[in-house]
Amino acid sequence: MFVKGYLIASALALAISFGLFLLGFPLDIAFTIAVVIGLGLSLFLGAFLIRIFTKPLADELGAEPSGLTNGGLYIGYLERALIMLLVLMGEPTGVGFLIAAKSILRFGEVKEIGQRKMSEYIIIGTFFSFGWGLFIALLTQVMIEALSMALR
C-alpha cells in the first residue's frame, strides 16, 4: 500500500510540476523532489494521522458514517493535493474557497439537531486535514528553496 501510494504521489508531483511549468514556473529537479516528498507526507502520512486522531471520535459515534466506502479518505487526498497545488502556485487564499465549498456541500448532510456529533466529527476531521495540508505545503515551499540552493 505504501509503495503504491508513493507511486501515485510521484505521478501527482510530476503532473503538478508539469502543470506549473505550463503556467510559467521553472521546472527543476529540486522542485520535483520536494513536491514528491511533500505530497507523500501530506496525502498518506496525513491520512494515517487523521485516521488515528479521529478513531476515538468515530468509535463514539457508534455507527459507521454513511457514504461511499473510503469516500472520506479520497476526499481528504483530493483536498490536501489541492491545498498543495494552491500554495505552490502562490495562491494560498484559494484554500478559503475550498473550506467554503466543503462547508456548503456538507451542510445538507447535518441539518438535523440529532446529528450534532456527526457534524462535530466532520468539522474536526476537516480542520485537521486542512491544517495538516497547509503545514506540509508550507514546509514543502521551504524544502524547495533549500534544495534549490543546495543543488546550485
From TrEMBL:
Domain of life: Bacteria
Keywords from the UniProt entry: Membrane, Transmembrane, Transmembrane helix
The keyword Membrane is annotated on this UniProt entry: yes
Residue spans crossing the bilayer: 6-23, 30-54, 74-100, 121-144
Protein name: Uncharacterized protein
Natural source organism: Ponticaulis profundi
Lineage: Bacteria, Pseudomonadati, Pseudomonadota, Alphaproteobacteria, Hyphomonadales
